[in-house]
Design a protein that fits this description.
heterodimer, A: alpha/beta, Pyruvate Kinase, Chain: A, domain 1, 2 domains, five-stranded mixed β-sheet, about 60% helix, B: alpha+beta, ATP Synthase, domain 1, Single alpha-helices involved in coiled-coils or other helix-helix interfaces, eight-stranded mixed β-sheet, elongated
Chain lengths: ~290, ~130
């Protein structure tokens, strides 16, 4: 049986760890609230953006713009969004797993990385990290999304890559986040039309005019659409990161609580044992003398 | 009715709802030139070029520096999807002037590694910022 001193020391160590996890949980709760408000604020923008792009694509059947055609180039770019810090449960490894389990050929993938943790994992697995924007995982504004998007589109325009994907964690609610792999480019109009089925408003679709020719409008609006998707993914990823960390830290705090309880019990038992032993020794000693 | 010539205007950015209200006329720059919109405009989607946005409504006309985005115009509602937009109060005049000078120098220097597109966009933005303060 461990000595009283050992048990006491262990209990103290667990309880100071518990203080840390508790504090981290509170911090991520606050951050999560902030991220949720931010996501809510940008919702109108994405809704209108989505509607416009749908309008545009609905009548784009014959337009020849590379953004909406399957490309010959086999190379794929994947923008992965993870966090710079760990201790967030399966948050980072879920995103990485999505890429390693996908049936893409490792040689054909260029990783555009956001988040140090994801980078470490992917580098170890031998993926090609083309660019790294990890500083964005700590804080970003819309201009940053534009910068990333332009870098990706340049490669796409030059024909170096044929498809652009984004791997991030979708924020469903506070307790459930889901890692998803989404295709950004090329945008295939048929996929969109399918989405519209049922709740679409075809009257609106026919009425909208464009000041400039449709193909030019597509060329200008699709990059904006992709940028907004990237920004949206970043916002969601930040919310998910904090949600995941909150949960992880919550269960860590609970586990620590349980452990402290068990250690306290052990400690008390050990204390009682030592007292009993002392008493026995004294009585035995007294008896020996008499 | 007196205010029958008013329509809704909504300016949204990815980060916030920038402005929402009624207006009788909205003016801004598009890729095809300057555009002024009154009520009952035909449905139209336009791409925005850097320029000054002017909202004429019930109150004092409002100015803002509008840099990028697009606008969806419907007969009784205009939605401007602005990627970058600023009120004049948010603009730092000296910084804008500085960046205008820098851009002009970059364009004038014409060294082969100058990114002309970027410099001219920066120049346009700076001019637009300065105009909106005036």
């Amino acid at each position: 049986m461990a000595s009283m001193r050992d048990i006491k020391r262990r209990r103290e160590s667990v309880s100071s760890t518990q203080q840390i996890t508790k504090a981290m949980k509170l911090v991520s709760t606050v951050k999560l609230q902030r991220a949720k408000t931010r996501a809510l604020k940008s919702k109108t923008y994405f809704q209108s953006m989505y509607n416009t792009v749908t309008h545009l694509l609905a009548k784009s059947g014959t337009i020849d713009v590379p953004y909406i055609k399957e490309q010959e180039c086999k190379r794929k770019a994947i923008l992965t969004i993870t966090s710079n810090r760990g201790l967030a449960g399966g948050y980072n490894s879920n995103v990485v797993k999505l890429i390693t389990k996908s049936n893409f050929d490792k040689e054909d993938i260029d990783i555009y990385n956001i988040g140090r943790k994801g980078r470490e994992l992917l580098e170890r697995k031998g993926y090609n990290i083309k660019a790294d924007y990890s500083e964005l995982a700590d804080g970003f504004c819309y201009a940053d999304a534009i910068k990333v998007c332009n870098a990706l589109l340049r490669e796409f325009d030059e024909g170096n890559i044929g498809e652009i994907y984004i791997a991030y964690t979708n924020f469903k609610n506070t307790v459930s986040q889901e890692a998803i792999l989404l295709k950004l480019l090329p945008v295939i109009p048929e996929d969109f039309v399918k989405d519209e089925d049922g709740d679409g408003t075809p009257d609106d679709l026919l009425m909208m005019n464009f000041e400039i020719p449709d193909d030019e409008a597509l060329r200008l609006i699709v990059p904006k659409y992709v940028t907004s998707l990237i920004y949206g993914a970043l916002v969601e990823a930040v919310a998910s990161e904090n949600g995941a960390r909150m949960q992880a830290m919550d269960s860590a705090t609970n586990n620590a609580e349980e452990m402290i309880g068990r250690l306290t019990l052990q400690y008390n038992r050990a204390r009682q044992g030592s007292i009993t032993q002392e008493l026995t020794e004294i009585i035995a000693g007294a008896e020996a003398i008499s | 009715m007196e205010d029958s010539n008013l329509f809704d205007i909504k300016i949204v950015t990815p980060e916030r709802l920038f402005y929402e209200g009624k207006a009788s006329m909205v003016e801004f720059n598009t890729t095809e030139g300057e555009l002024g919109i009154l009520k009952n405009h035909i449905p139209l989607t336009v791409i925005i070029e850097p320029g000054v946005l002017t909202i004429t409504g019930e109150e004092q006309p409002k100015n803002a520096a509008l840099h990028a985005g697009f606008a969806v115009i419907e007969p009784d509602c205009v939605t401007i999807m602005a990627e970058i937009i600023e009120w004049p109060t948010e603009i730092d005049a000296s910084r804008a002037e500085e960046s205008m000078k820098r851009a002009q120098e970059r364009i004038a220097a014409k060294s082969p590694d100058t990114d002309l597109d970027r410099a001219s966009v920066a120049l346009k933005k700076a001019i637009c910022r300065l105009n909106s303060i005036k």
